[in-house]
Design brief:
The chain has 319 residues and is of the alpha+beta class. It folds into 3 domains: 50 residues, no CATH class; 119 residues, no CATH class; 114 residues, VSR Endonuclease (Endonuclease, Chain A, 3-Layer(aba) Sandwich), CATH 3.40.960.10. It is built from 13 helices and 12 strands. The chain has a 4-stranded mixed beta sheet with strand order 9-10-11-12, with helices on both faces. The chain has a 3-stranded antiparallel beta sheet with strand order 1-3-2, sandwiched between helices. It has a 3-stranded mixed beta sheet with strand order 4-5-6. Helix 11 links the parallel strand 11 and strand 12. Helix 6 crosses helix 8. The protein is elongated, with a radius of gyration of 26 Å. The N and C termini lie far apart (81 Å). The mean pLDDT is 86.
Length: 319
C-alpha cells in the first residue's frame, strides 16, 4: 500500500513547478501548518523574501523566480514588458519584472514595477512557465503605455508571425478601449499605419528598410516576393523586391541569412537568383543609420533596369 506523501514534501514538489516559490495560503492548502513553516525557516529549508511569500533554499535564482515572487506578493499577473518577455515577443529579452495588480490592492511594490488596474477582475490570464500572465492581445495593449509605437509594432508583428490572430487582437483592443485604460492609443495608431498592408515581414529590420526606401522617393516595392528558380518546388522569398525589374533587397542580418550554419545555403540562394536574372542588394543596420549609400545603389540599379526593360514607369520618380 502506497504511503501518503507528507504535506511538506508535497508543498516543496509544488514549489518546484513554481520556480521554487510558494505562499502561506498554498502551504496551508497543502496541509502544512504555520508551525511547520516556522521550523523549516529555522532549519534553513526555506527562506522568506517577503511577508507571506517563501522560496525553497537552494533553488536557482532566476528572472522567472523574481517574477513569481512579485506575482505571489501582489496577487497580480505578469504584464506589459514582463509579459512580452514571457511570451517570447521580439524586442523584450531584457524586460524588467512588471506586474499588474488590483486597483484596491494594499501592498506597495518595492523592487519591481507595478500597475494598478480597475479591470483586474476581468482579466483572463494564461499560465506561461507556471506564471499567471496577461494574454498576448492584452499584453500588446498594455505595451503602448510603457514603450514607443515602434516597439509596439515590433511586438505585434512578432505575435502575428507566431500565429496569433489579428482579429482576436483587435477585438481585445476594443474590449479594453475605455477611459482609464492606457496603451490603447498606441496600438490603434500602429494598426492604422498605411504601410501595414500586405504580408508581415520576417523581421523588424525588414520593415524599417522598406520605410527608408519609401521615404526617399523610390517606387514602392513589394514584400516577401516568391521567386521560383528552375528545378525548384518551393522557391525563394525575397524580403523586398521590384519584380518588374528583377531587383531584390535583402536584410543582411546574421540572424536570418548569414549565421554559421546558413552561409553555404545563403550563397547558393544568391547564385541561383543571379543566374535567373535577379540583381540582389543587401542592407545592414549601419545602412539605416546613414542610408545615403544604400539609396544611391538602389537608384542606380532601378534606373539601369528601367532602361533595360523599356518600362514606361520611372521607379525613381514614384512617390
Amino acid at each position: 500500500m502506497r504511503q501518503p506523501v507528507p504535506p511538506m514534501h508535497a508543498l516543496l514538489k509544488q514549489a518546484g513547478v513554481q520556480h521554487g516559490v510558494f505562499t502561506t495560503s498554498l502551504a496551508l492548502e497543502t496541509g502544512v501548518t504555520k508551525a511547520q513553516l516556522t521550523t523549516a525557516l529555522r532549519r534553513g529549508t526555506i527562506q522568506q523574501p517577503h511577508s507571506g511569500v517563501f522560496r525553497v533554499s537552494g533553488s536557482p535564482w532566476s528572472w522567472e523566480q523574481e517574477v513569481m515572487i512579485a506575482v505571489s506578493l501582489l496577487r497580480g499577473v505578469a504584464s506589459h514588458r514582463c509579459a512580452a518577455r514571457l511570451h517570447g515577443l521580439d524586442g523584450f529579452a531584457d524586460a524588467p519584472v512588471e506586474i499588474t495588480m488590483a486597483h484596491s490592492g494594499s501592498r506597495r511594490p518595492r523592487s519591481f514595477l507595478a500597475h494598478r488596474s480597475r479591470l483586474f477582475n476581468l482579466m483572463k490570464p494564461v499560465q506561461i512557465k507556471a506564471i499567471p500572465t496577461t494574454t498576448v492581445a492584452h499584453t500588446l495593449v498594455d505595451l503602448g503605455a510603457v514603450v514607443s509605437d515602434d516597439k509596439v509594432e515590433q511586438a505585434l508583428d512578432d505575435s502575428i508571425r507566431k500565429g496569433f490572430n489579428l482579429r482576436w487582437i483587435t477585438e481585445t483592443l476594443e474590449q479594453l478601449r475605455r477611459p482609464g485604460v492606457t496603451g490603447c492609443g498606441a496600438l490603434l495608431r500602429v494598426l492604422a499605419r498605411p504601410d501595414r498592408r500586405g504580408p508581415i515581414p520576417d523581421s523588424t529590420f525588414e520593415r524599417l528598410v522598406q520605410r527608408v526606401i519609401c521615404s526617399k522617393g523610390l517606387g514602392k516595392p513589394e514584400r516577401q516576393v516568391l521567386v521560383r528558380c528552375q528545378g525548384q518546388r518551393k522557391g525563394y522569398s525575397i524580403d523586398v523586391a521590384w519584380p518588374e525589374f528583377k531587383l531584390g533587397l535583402e536584410a543582411d542580418s546574421e540572424l536570418w541569412h548569414w549565421g554559421p550554419r546558413r552561409g553555404r545555403l545563403a550563397r547558393q540562394r544568391h547564385n541561383r537568383l543571379t543566374a535567373h536574372g535577379w540583381e540582389m542588394i543587401y542592407a545592414s543596420w549601419q545602412d539605416l543609420d546613414d542610408p545615403s549609400e544604400l539609396i544611391k545603389q538602389l537608384k542606380l540599379a532601378l534606373q539601369r533596369h528601367w532602361v533595360a526593360t523599356g518600362s514606361t514607369c520611372d521607379p525613381c520618380a514614384t512617390q
